[in-house]
Amino acid sequence: MERIHSLTPNEVYQVLRTSPEGLNENEAAERLLHFGPNLLEVQKKPSNFKKFLAQFSHFFALLLWFAAGLSFVGHYFNPKEGMDKLGFAIIGVILINAVFTFIEQYKAEKAIEALKKMLPYLVRVIREGREKEVLAERIVPGDVILLSEGDRVPADGRLVEAIGLKTNNAALTGESEPQERVAEVSKQKKLLDSPNIIFAGTEVVAGSGKAIIFATGLNTEFGKIAQLTQIVKTEINPLEHEIIKVTHFVTFLAFSLGISFFLLGSFIGRSFWENFLFAIGIIVANVPEGLLPTVTLALAMGSKRMAQRKALVRNLSAIETLGRTNIICTDKTGTLTQNKMTVTHIFILDSMIELKDKEVFPVNRLSGLKLLLTAASLCNNARFKEGKLIGDPTEKALLALAIKEGIEQEDLFKKYKRISEIPFDSERKRMNTIYKNSNECYFSFVKGAVEMILPLCWGVFENGKTFRIDDAKRKSILEINKQFGEKALRVIALAYRELPKDFSLDEADKELVFLGLVGMTDPPRPEVSDAIKKCHKAGIKIFMLTGDNPITAEAIARQIGLVKEKPLIIEGEKIDENELIRLFENKEIIFVRVSPRHKMLIVSALKDMGKVVVLTGDGVNDAPALKKADIGIAMGIAGTDVAKEAADMVLMDDNFATIVTAAEGRAVFDNVRKFITYIFSSNVPEIVPYYILYVLLGIPCLLPSFRYWQ
Prior knowledge:
Blueprint: H1 9-15, H2 25-35, H3 48-54, H4 59-77, H5 83-115, E1 122-127, E2 130-135, E3 144-148, E4 156-168, H6 170-173, E5 179-180, E6 197-198, E7 203-215, H7 221-231, H8 238-267, H9 272-286, H10 291-308, E8 311-313, H11 318-323, E9 327-330, E10 342-348, E11 351-354, H12 366-378, E12 383-385, E13 388-390, H13 393-404, H14 409-415, E14 416-422, E15 430-437, E16 442-448, H15 450-453, E17 457-462, E18 465-468, H16 471-486, E19 490-499, E20 512-521, H17 528-537, E21 541-545, H18 550-559, E22 568-571, H19 577-583, E23 589-592, H20 596-608, E24 613-617, H21 623-628, E25 631-635, H22 641-646, E26 649-651, H23 662-696
Parallel strand pairs: 9-21, 9-24, 17-20, 21-23, 22-23, 24-25, 25-26
Antiparallel strand pairs: 1-2, 1-3, 3-7, 4-5, 4-6, 4-7, 8-26, 10-11, 10-20, 12-13, 14-15, 15-16, 16-19, 17-18, 19-20
C-alpha cells in the first residue's frame, strides 16, 4: 500500500476489494480474522508472576542467595554457631524487598492502565450501504469510515471525500500546525507527506470526510513506531550500574578475604574445617544484606513524594537517575507549551491591542473590534460540543476570544444563517462563509493570510465607518504583519463585504472591507520558565527537539528563557552523526523539524558522551527515544499510550516544571552513598581487630557467637 496515495478513489476501492457501500458483515468478519484486531499490542508483557520472580534473580539478590547458602553450609558443619538463623534472616531480606518492589511497580502499572485512551471507542463506518457504529478494534482494511470534527482517526486511511478537513498530526509527527487533508491524487513520494492520507491516532480538528481504511493495528504508521519502540534495547540506568559495580566490588572483596584467611589459617596449621568455616564467616560478614532494602526503601520514599507532586514513577531507580541528569531533551508542543492557540494581539488600523492591556481598549475603536470578532465567529467552524470547544486550534482561539468579549456564537446564528462556504485551501490561503441576515441582506466574511486578503480589499473599517484604503494604510498593515511575524505569532487577517442579492460565489472575494489583524500563539506553560531557571542553576542543559519551524521554536525558547543569546538551530535532515558530538559544545541548541530517527540519533550521541540524558515527550513519535534515554518522561494527559509504555516516569499534570523534583533523586543518591560508607566503615573494624587476631594469634573470638545474641 506504499503508493495508495497516488491512486484515484475508484482505483482504491478496487485494490482494497470494497465499494462506496462498504463491506458486508461477513466479509468484515473474515478480514478481522485475517488481519487481526485494530490494536497496538506489540509484545506480550510478562505475567505478574514472572515480574515477581524477577525480583529474586537480579545480581545483588543472587549474591544474597549465595550468602544465605553459605550460612546454611556453615550451620551444617558447625550447628553450635546458629548460622542457619543468619541464613533465614538474609532470605527474609530478599523476600521482603521483592514483595515491596513488586507492589510499588504494580501500583504504577495500574495507574498507567487507567490513563490509556489512545484509540476511539466507537467509529462511524459504512457497511452494507448503511451507517453504523462499531468498536475501533473491529475496523478492518476496506472499511469505509466517516469523519467529523472532534473524531480521532482509528486507522490509516485514504480519503475519498474531504470538506474543509484538517487533522492535528502532533501525536505522530510533532507538528503543532493542523494539516489540511484533501481527496485528490497526491504526487508526493512519501506516504507521510501525502495530504490525502489520514493516520491512526491523529485528530480531526475541522471539516468532515470519508476514507477507506488500508492499514490497521501494527501495520499503521502509528503501529510501526510502536514496534520500533520494542526494538530499542532497554539499558541499565546509572543507579543500577553503580549498584552492580558496588556489588562486584563487595563480592570480590569478600571472596578475596575469605580465601586469604583460609590460606593463612592453613599456613599456620589450623584444620581444614576450622579454616573453611572461618572463611564462610568472613564472606557472609562482608555481604551488605542491608543495602538492597535500604536502596528500595529510599527510592520508594522518593517515589511517594514525587507522586504527591503529580509525577508517577514506573521504574523506582529512575528517581535517582533524574537527580543526576546532565541533559534534558524536551519536546515543545504540549510539553513546554500548552498546545492551545491563544490570541495575544489585535490590530485595528492605528490601534494595537495587547490582551494583557485589555482595560485600556480605546472606546472609539470598540465598534471595529466588535465587527472584527463578529467576523471571526461567523467565518469559523469551531463549535461547542459536550461543554468544550471542538475544532481547529486557530478557530477555537478566535471563537474563545469572541466569547470572552461577550459575543456569543449562538446569538449570532439567530441573526445570521449560513448559506454557503468556500473552505480554506493551500492556494487561496483563505476561507469564506456566506450568510443571510434577518433583513434578507447577504454578507461574505473572510479570514486568512494577510498577503492574500489585503490585495482584495478596497476599503477599511475605522471609527464605525468604511473608508477607502490608501497606500499608507496598506503599508502600515504590512508593517504590523511583519512585526507579528518577528514575534512568531500566527497572523490572521479578517475582512467582509455586503453582497448583492443576485450575487455569485466569485464575488465573495471581491471589494472586501479590511477589519484587522489577529496575532496568536501557542502559549508556554506558566511554570516552565522557573523550572528552566532551576535546571540551569543545577547545571542541567536543556535542548528543545521539535517538529516545528525554526522561527516559532526560537521565539518560544526565548519566551521561556531557554535561550538568551543566538542559539545554534539544527534542522533534523541536516543532522550529521559524525558532527553531533562537536555541535553539543555549543551553549544553546535548538533542534527543529526532527523525526523519531533524529531523536534517537541525538539521545544516542549524548549517551556516547557519557551524559545522563532525560527525554520528555507526549507523542508516539517520541516513544523510541523515550526508551533509549536514561530516563524517559511522558505526559499523562496529552501523552499517547505508546509514549507512556516506553517511559520511566509519567507527569500526571503534563507539567514540565515537575522535573525540578530531581532534588528527590539527589537525596536518594546521598542516602545510598552514606549507607555504603557506613557498611564499609563498620565491617573493617569487625575484621581487623578481631578476626585477624583470632587467626594470627589464636586468641578466642571476642565477638559473641550468633546463638548468644539471639
